[in-house]
Write a structure and sequence with these properties.
Blueprint lengths: L3 H10 L3 H6 L3 H12 L5 H8 L5 E7 L4 H4 L2 H10 L4 E7 L4 H6 L10 E5 L5 E6 L3 H10 L14 H24 L1 H7 L2
Parallel strand pairs: 1-2
Antiparallel strand pairs: 1-3, 3-4
Helix pairs in contact: 3-6, 8-9
């Protein structure tokens, strides 16, 4: 089901980060923007992302209402801003794109956010979500009872930085898959 044609269609139907956040009610928009303002790429991360030579397309199945999405979606906006010529991110609502959500269930459930990472031809490379390893570690350490953090809940700065690094690491891994792809190396003559 995760064919390049299907993924390209879903990507084309997706919204940019700003349009997606703008689709929420004022409180939701504030939550997304506030969290986005609380994190930033390091100079090292910005340099790494800026060095990418292959296109990486990221399609995110999300919920504007979801606390985990609020606390992870902005990372992808920062990553895209780190190299907008090579990294493109689009968001789709999980419930409006149920066919995609069904295809990317995690542990048998409809989770959000789930990021599908693809090359320039929309070949599937990686699925990353619903939370990063560092987010799960923090949740386990705090023994949270809720299955989803409340939107706008405070997140310690070191946890934010660790989660952003998780996302950068995964996008870097996907870029290296693209960079070393025989098909793409032949196409680009390198």
């Amino acid at each position: 089901m995760l064919t390049p044609d299907f993924l390209r269609t879903k990507f084309d139907q997706g919204a940019t980060y700003d349009a997606y956040v703008g689709s929420g009610d004022p409180g939701q928009q504030d939550n997304w923007r506030s969290f986005g303002a609380s994190c930033a790429l390091t100079d090292e991360q910005r340099t790494l992302l800026g060095s990418f030579e292959r296109d990486v397309n990221i399609l995110v199945s999300s919920g504007i209402w979801c606390g985990d999405c609020v606390q992870q979606g902005p990372f992808l906006k920062h990553i895209e801003d780190g190299n907008p010529d090579r990294i493109r991110v689009r968001f789709v609502d999980r419930d409006e794109h149920a066919d995609l959500a069904e295809a990317v269930k995690i542990c048998g459930g409809l989770r959000v956010p789930v990021a599908l990472m693809m090359n320039e031809d929309f070949d599937f490379i990686s699925l990353f979500g619903d939370r990063t390893l560092n987010r799960y570690r923090a949740m386990a350490a705090k023994a949270l009872g809720a299955s989803c953090a409340l939107p706008g809940a405070a997140v310690p700065a070191d946890e934010v930085a660790a989660q952003l690094q998780d996302w950068v690491d995964e996008v870097e891994r996907v870029h290296l898959v693209c960079r070393l792809s025989t098909k793409l190396r032949q196409r680009h003559g390198d």
